[in-house]
Specification:
It is a single chain. This protein has two domains: 105 residues, ATPase, nucleotide binding domain (Nucleotidyltransferase, domain 5), CATH 3.30.420.40; 173 residues, 2-Layer Sandwich (Nucleotidyltransferase, domain 5). It has eleven helices and 13 strands. A five-stranded mixed β-sheet has the order 3-2-1-4-8. The protein has a five-stranded mixed β-sheet with strand order 11-10-9-12-13, with helices on both faces. Strands 5-6-7 form a three-stranded antiparallel β-sheet, with helices on one face. It is globular, with a radius of gyration of 19 Å. By secondary structure, the protein is of the alpha/beta class. The structure holds zinc ion. Zinc ion binds next to loops.
Amino acid sequence: MRLGIDIGGTKTAAVAIGADGELSDQFRMPTGFGAEEVVATALRTVERMTELAGVEASSFASIGIGIPGAVDSGTGRVAHAVNLGLEGLDLGPRLADRLGVEVTVENDVKAAAVGAHHLLGVADGIRAHSMAYLNLGTGLAAGIVLDGRLLRGGHGVAGEIGHIPVDPAGVVCTCGQRGCLETLASGSAIARMWPTDGPLPAKELFAAAAAGDDRAIAVRERFLTGVAAAVRLLVLTADVDDVVIGGGLAALGDPLLAGARRILSEWATDSAFLASLDLPSRVQVIPLGFPAAAVGAALVGEHQWLKS
Ligand SMILES: [Zn+2]
């Protein structure tokens, strides 16, 4: 049995995965803020899972953590994770000391890519195909699995496509560049382009657009064009078979998928090259509630993912 833990800004999700690849136990608990609380949250999660599964922590085949921010997966160190209040934490080594077993740490979007790859593999029976996980949350980032292996790059930056500028006349991004993809296709982009006091700006935007509000339609199209551009970018750089959209905005569901496919189809009518790539058929949205990052964290500890 493998244990995967996804430490998010407010909630931590945990799953146990059996040798058959099926999820056996899963639960969520609140995440503490700051280094000591994040370590304590991870330890509480492991303890609860050992109770649920009826085994010792040392009998898990692997324990993996997915966490936002800059992660050195080789050392298990989290350089910084702003929304968790972390600035330099040796998370992997500290947990290993306490638990007596090795603990793998990976960036949460990269972990989610491994989780989504696993989900597709279970569905299709294909283990070694190439896919990208496009995370549309507050920001935009992707994780890429090539021929069954997670692509990290030399410094863990592979897949950080949210900071590829696509609009020279766009707004200045948090990264300091202008017109990044993230300034068009992310939760923060929608919050900026469609200000509202409601808790779910993206849902409100799509509802207003569906009701015929011209301004909402314009903002929705700008957002969807950014999503479609991200899909095109991932296919043109890595020729992935599938682009699976996840993250908080994936809860938009069918209107998001249909909108992205519509724009990709429109582009294909003007370009025989794009038409030949059949982009609309490659994009999908992850099933609501599937704990991709926790599943991926469990699997990223497997030997095969660590070998380059
Ligand atoms: Zn940027």
